[in-house]
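Q&A FORM
Asked by: J.P.
Topic: structure of Carbohydrate ABC transporter permease

PROVIDED:
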Amino acid sequence: MNAHARPLSRAILTALAVMISLAFLAPVLWLLASTFRSATETFASSSPLSWHVLWPQEWTLDNLRSAVDSGFLTALGNSLVVAAATVALGLLVSSAAAFALAVIPFRGRGAVFTVVVLSFLIPFEAIAIPLSRTVSDWGLANTLIALILPGLGNGLAVFTLRQFFLGIPRSLSEAAHLDGAGWFRIYRSIYLPLTRPALIGAGLILFLFQWQAYLWPILITSTQAMDLAPVAIAKSFGAFSTDYGRVFAETAILAVIPAVILLALQRYFVTSVASTGSKE
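REPLIED BY: S.T.
REPLY: Here is the structure written out as tokens.
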């Protein structure tokens, strides 16, 4: 390819990338615009299609006020508490399990890892109903503990951390053993400090699992005070009428929070996926 063709090729590829990005962003922009448009304008601009679909003719905060007045902030707070607790406790459980599977030699380690892999290949919906019966029998229905428990043992998070742990030179743990360090000290003082990107990546996996949870909260809770944000949005739809402006506002709030977190931590998430393999 000659020197004149390269800039043209780059410009075409850039334009194509921008068009594809806009195609993916269009529904998101429509959602955000619908949050600030009046109820009468919500669907009026989509037939016939016009640029007002992405830019309201009249801006209003009524939809956000309606979401606040409906008690959505309580459900959003529940989601934040459940997601934060899941990330904190889930990272402890997942990192300890990953360390054992990657570093500590024991009989049957390969079989245990196979079970971990199978656990995140099986859809959670397949086990949600019998699991909810078990949790209810324990007397934990309508509690934050019941909402948090399923997210603690996330197989994908364990897998991600184990792959990262395998890339840490074994010579470090062997040298620590010679100095008299036990497994817990090696885990705490050597492996955890070296796995910050992987821990952030696993934390994002745990956060997203809980943030978008819908079936499990419905099965394990029955009071409005324990509703999570996705459940509260579903309850906004009435049998005969629905305030779509309020639904758009609640959905936008629910979507913006993880989007901001992912954009802020995306480089750590990419590093956690890329940084596998031996570093000897």
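FOLLOW-UP: The longest helix spans residues 5-35.
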